[in-house]
Amino acid sequence: MQLSDWTTWPVLAAATWVVVDLSMRFVALGVIPGRRKPSTGMAWLLLVLLNPVIGLLGFSFFGTNRVGRRRHDKIAQVNELIRSRTEDVPEPATASHFRPAVHGTVALNRQLGALPLLADNTIRFEPDYTAALAAMTRRVEAAQHYVDVEFYIAALDDETRPFFTALADAVQRGVTVRFLFDHIGSRGIPGHEHMVKFLDEAGIDWHAMLPIKPLKGKFRRPDLRNHRKLVVVDGQVGFTGSLNLTEPGYNKPKNHKAGRKWVELVVELEGPAVASLEAVFASDWWVETDEVLHVRHQGATGQVAALDGAISEVTTQLVPSGPGYPTDNTLRLFTSLMYAAERRLSITSPYFVPDESLLYAVTTAAQRGVEVELFVCEQADQFMVGHAQASYYRELLEAGVRIHLYPKPYVLHSKHFSVDDDVAVIGSSNMDPRSFALNYELSLVLFDDRAVTAMRGVEDTYRELSRELTLAAWESRPRRQKYLDNVFRLTSALQ
């Protein structure tokens, strides 16, 4: 071998790497922007251009929210089935009083989520964490036929034990109990393994949603989640909202040491809307188990109406969303209602990281004279999301949005907003890219001035406890914090 051979190989290797590097960047330019929001595409392209290997590797795992053809096809089938079985449901007479913009939102929800507008429901808000769990437990204790339970996070602990005991007792009475929880979301919570053992011993039919089991052929983008929270008892009473099935410190010693507790809002309901909740559960159950559940309205019992704070004859519509849907259902719902606001818009979200469309909807409302207020945590429980959220405060404040910081160490985890005096929305969805594109979510829209008044009462409590953020105070924060805010604002778009 000649000496020139040794000098040729390094040159050849370097030249080859240059060609490969340029090829990866070139291919990325033509592939990544496809069917993505410009901000998302630009964020991924920036990462690829900075380091093609790391960027493309990350994109291969996290660059798409596809959940697999089988799951996607089943969700499409469910939506068509719901649409066909409810196409003859007449529009309630109450809809004739809706403003045109609100009526348009109803049509949009029907198109995107398939579920119809339903009148004659009874609702009651429960802002107390322990009381919400107790209310669900009482309904399970009275169950006669079946109980359907679905939570993003579920764990057996001192706070949730009465609920799990009620489920086990129900099984002993011959009640069918079905239980769903997110595979990854629940595994990280202390008490998870104890819960699974309890479910098995109690004879409860349980399944993990979106499981990742490569050896069994179950693999997908690892950060997709089913973030829904709901309970249905005998088809007569339902619950949904922001509450996860765990104690208010999430069984984490660091939370207990800091005194950190989650603040939630749950809605209990009776009426035709319970069938909508059950239809969503049935679709998730079928996707995970291949078992078909038959959903039918069982009629109301008057149990909710007898409680303090209950509101009867409420018109509602349930809107499911998630990566199996072809459109961003929740984002479209939220922005449509925000553009419909004429006088007041009150938003509560623990993770407020808006994309361009949502940011414009909120700031445009404020700029055209709508009184807009935003309730967020003073101290975020997630470092990256907290900084990404903070990066939007200046734009919001300059537009005239009033920002109220709920005091630390509490985590204001409630997810709801109210528009003028006629629409309120409550559910599982945050206002961030994850909830809009990566999570399966659930939003209950309430078209009723009394429901808005009740929700405003909850918001008034938040306001009394919070401190208002001013632009001057925000601009005085350290430069290091400003830098981190901007960095994590960019990474929030990496979907």
Automatic annotation (TrEMBL):
Q: Which InterPro entries match?
A: Cardiolipin_synthase, PLD-like_dom, PLipase_D/transphosphatidylase
Q: Where does the record say this protein resides?
A: Cell membrane
Q: What is its main location?
A: membrane
Task: Give the keywords, sorted.
Answer: Cell membrane, Membrane, Repeat, Transferase, Transmembrane, Transmembrane helix
Q: Which residues cross the membrane?
A: 12-32, 44-62
Record-annotated PLD phosphodiesterase domain positions: 222-249, 408-435
A Pfam family annotated for this UniProt entry: PLDc_2
Q: Which superkingdom heads the taxonomic lineage of this protein's source?
A: Bacteria
Enzyme Commission number(s) of this protein: 2.7.8.-
Q: What is this protein called?
A: Cardiolipin synthase
